[in-house]
Amino acid sequence: MNYSYPFSYDWTTQEIIDVIKFFEAVETVYEHGMEREQLMNLYRRFKEIVPSKSEEKKWCDEFEKTSGYSSYHVVKKAKEAKNGEWIQMTEKN
Fold it and tell me: SUPFAM superfamilies of this UniProt entry (predicted)?
């Protein structure tokens, strides 16, 4: 990993940690896969911190630009899957 995670200086330390955990989960889905509900729990916490769709898009686009991993496609795939399913992306978008 040769990039940094996007975050806001307005967030608390715990919020920054939780947002980074979500972005790390996106990486994990691409690199190894993850159980759907685990990812969705991290995404729900991310949405508590970043409730606005436009803000979500801003942070996820910034993460994708630096990492090549699409949070949007990972969450979309997770929403289409059923609880208990393993989700994994086959390639970077």
Answer: BH2638-like (SSF158504)
Buried b / exposed e along 63-74 (16+ C-beta atoms within 10 A): bbeebebbbebb
Range of the domain at 69: 13-80
CATH number at residue 55: 1.10.220.80
Number of domains in the chain: 1
Question: Are the C-beta atoms of residues 20 and 5 closer than 8 Å to each other?
Answer: yes
pLDDT digits (tens, 9 = 90+) for 34-66: 999 999 999 999 999 999 999 999 999 999 999
Cα–Cα distance, 82 to 72 (Å, whole number): 17
Pick left, alpha or beta for residue 68 (phi over 0 → left; psi -120 to 50 → alpha; otherwise beta): left
Q: What is the pTM of this model?
A: 0.92
